Amino acid sequence: MTVVQSTSSTTNKVLPHPLNAWYVAGWDHEVTRKPMSRRIANRPVALYRTEDGQVVALADACWHRLAPLSMGKTVGKDGIQCPYHGIVYNSAGRCVSMPAQETINPSATVPSFPIVERYRYVWIWMGDPTLADPDLVPDMHWADDPGWAGDGKVIHAPCNYQLVLDNLMDLTHEEFVHEGSIGNDALSQAGFEVTHTSTTVTLSRWMTDIEAPPVWAGYLRERFPDYRGNVDRWQIITFEAPSTICLDVGVAKAGTGAPEGDRSQGVNGYVLNTVTPETERSSHYFWAFMRNFKLDSQRVTTQTREGVSRIFAQDEEMLVAQQAAIDANPDYEFYNLNIDSGGMWVRRILESMLAAEGRLAASA
Amino acid sequence: MAATNIETWQSATVVEKIPVADGIARIVLIPSLPLKAEPGSHVDLMVEINGEQAKRSYSVVESNHDGTRLVISVMRAPLSRGGSIFMHGLVAGQQLEITQPLQNFPLRVGAQRYILLAGGIGVTAVANMAAVLKRLKADYTLVYVGRSRSAMAYLAELSELHGERLEVHVDDEGSSLKVPELVGRADADTELYMCGPIRLMDAVRRTWVERELDLPNLRYETFGNSGWYDPEEFIVRVPKLDLEVRVPQGRSMLEALEDAGAEMMFDCRKGECGLCEVRITELSGAIDHRDVFYSERQQRLGTKMNCCVSRAVTSATGARSDTNHAGPAVITIGVS
Ligand SMILES: Cc1cc2nc3c(=O)[nH]c(=O)nc-3n(C[C@H](O)[C@H](O)[C@H](O)COP(=O)(O)OP(=O)(O)OC[C@H]3O[C@@H](n4cnc5c(N)ncnc54)[C@H](O)[C@@H]3O)c2cc1C
Ligand code: FES
Ligand code: FES
Ligand SMILES: [Fe+2]
Question: What region holds the Rieske domain (chain A) (predicted)?
Fold first, then answer.
């Protein structure tokens, strides 16, 4: 995939989603032997585990009369039984028994979707299965790396997935949306630098010798209880196509060399975000906060998870309101600010993926 | 996959027609509403037979990634009612009514091992699968069987693309396929995809069951037109409707009954769903079961048949080998 520099990016307000990509279908603990349903990229999917623990994803509509398989039950080693007339499908989506007949109609199948379980997430490929290369799963290794501790949740966000990406690519909003927790005016005053490749966008912002915002002052005290001075703060945002954004965030005692690479006098967190389109106007937003300090403290895990959860509830409130305003003002366009450059590179990459799938024109 | 099999009709332009084997033509189509053709898919299209429109299906042998160019290959059927003859008469520039690609024979990505078995023209349904498996670096063998090399389409191209993974069996070279040996190579992690004459597919299916392999791992496409015997004319009686109908060699029993005004139930018209089943109350002759809906046990019982594909023949040894058979077969049926 190449990004053609000369194309002008659209400010399409409801961006379609690429299909040839891995999206998170759920946290690993969400998918169990009991089937569940989740709409992903506009298609209802039934998810369950086989007896061996392998995750299975089938279209959530029976071949016969389209009853949702997720309302059925798992049977045998890897099967699922339709709750209506009892057709049984195996993990490949093939019918293995039909009611009241000795043979099986060869066309009785439901689509099955490729799955990879990695970094505590279940990843699904909704597009052309012949292109589903596990090496393309975005890097979120901090979620299960022993050097990091933490936890996360999933938010059902009633907005187009791209609005969530926009939110994360521009953290100047912290000053306004998250005032009093992670935001302060040092943010909008600091400059930032954007770089990109054909599948990633990185935005870095350093704020040196500033007063630590309340949340970060608290984290720093977990490690250095007596420190009260200024900090050097960083936010390094990395987007990986189509919808994963990992924020490398932290603070260190001011002047101890963090901008030059020595973070030993600081605390570091990774905010892992990956957004799965549900419909054109809703998303499953999976996030986690991982940290490299107080690794064995469940108290800190719970406190940071719940703290971030409260912060993200503020984002959610804004995103819901934004989507409603977009829908209520169909004749108005988006305009861009200089702070949108990270988000605009994300759009370019998504647009080139959509163009490769021949789906760019299908936008609303 | 009901939802992905909605027929969307469109026009298509024939841009090329060339012979690729004895009696087989390769036809390149440019559809007006292109859609990517997945491996195993086919298109339905309208042919003209004696001034009347009829529907025929052809597997997509090749397509480019956005489906703007579809290749099919048509064998001139030996006892054709006219569909394949019409297809062979096409010339570049002509327009056809065709559906977007339909899928009844999906390839599953991710099996540990694959055997693809093509018998004769059945190669059209598996050629595209083999190409995808090669691209995926999957473990596969393509087994291609035919009567003679000159009648086997795409032999050179397949051999170039698949090298050692292609295994060829040719009857008139004495290298016929041994079905038990082939099925013997399959284990619990092998999926076998096949398309070919019903005799070949029946033999594979029987061996597959004998070896207690999982039936869902045996995938096949029925072209819905071959039987154990050549089609013969026969008589069908329906006392309930006070009908006696002659079923000519070139028509199915379902069509003949419809022609005579009987209101028949059906869906697939290719022997898969069992909706056209009729009860057999009397029979002089034998039944040529051409469906895949009944198990062998049910076919042997001989109490019911699927009239969209199955036929009556004079004797169980087949008309050809029984030169002085007496009159057409007569079958009496009960309908719903
Ligand atoms: C999913 C699918 C994919 C297919 N793909 C291909 C393909 O790629 N290439 C290809 O060449 N064909 C393919 N076919 C078969 C094709 O659709 C036609 O059936 C074939 O071209 C013969 O049509 P016809 O009108 O010439 O012959 P038909 O009159 O249909 O005769 C064909 C054969 O059917 C038998 N027959 C004759 N009359 C009857 C009758 N009344 N009832 C039942 N059987 C009868 C005879 O044995 C005869 O040899 C496919 C079929 C299906 C269902
Ligand atoms: S709807 Fe599933 S078996 Fe009928
Ligand atoms: S109509 Fe489906 S088997 Fe005859
Ligand atoms: Fe935020």
Answer: 22-124
